[in-house]
């Protein structure tokens, strides 16, 4: 019985035939908050009390709209940065059309590297996933599909650095803003 109580205090809860290894420490709580307000909702960590669930609902009612405003602002800053760089290239090379295309291409490639191609290397190292699994996790997370079949920081056989979940939470915010710009660009092309 003592072992069960200690496991519960450590954040392990029995839910059906599975266990949830998420802990309500600062990093785990921050990661939970990000997954709630971004509507990813992996499903591996959730409030288990009535008060916690009510708080989560209120938090999400205010957090989701605020997050959308934040993502829009981040996206606009990214777009402004690309436009500023394109304008500088236009001044240097006196070629408006090529400079704009070059900057959009650079922004796309940089975003691909930072948000989809390089993170799987970190996930391979910290989680023990293959590169393909890390890439899959990256896309499923940033697109807010969030199946929950892969979630960072949940392997009890691994030790994670204290910064890991916080850095991934920031990666999610900036990556979602970048992916939203890419999707908006694709929509403009299709229209």
Automatic annotation (TrEMBL):
Protein name: KCNKH protein
Family: Belongs to the two pore domain potassium channel (TC 1.A.1.8) family.
Organism in which the protein naturally occurs: Chloropsis cyanopogon
Span of domain Potassium channel: 20-78, 113-190
UniProt membrane topology term: Multi-pass membrane protein
Bilayer-crossing regions: 51-71, 101-123, 135-155, 167-190
GO molecular function terms listed in the Swiss-Prot or TrEMBL record: outward rectifier potassium channel activity; potassium ion leak channel activity
Keywords: Ion channel, Ion transport, Membrane, Potassium, Transmembrane, Transmembrane helix, Transport
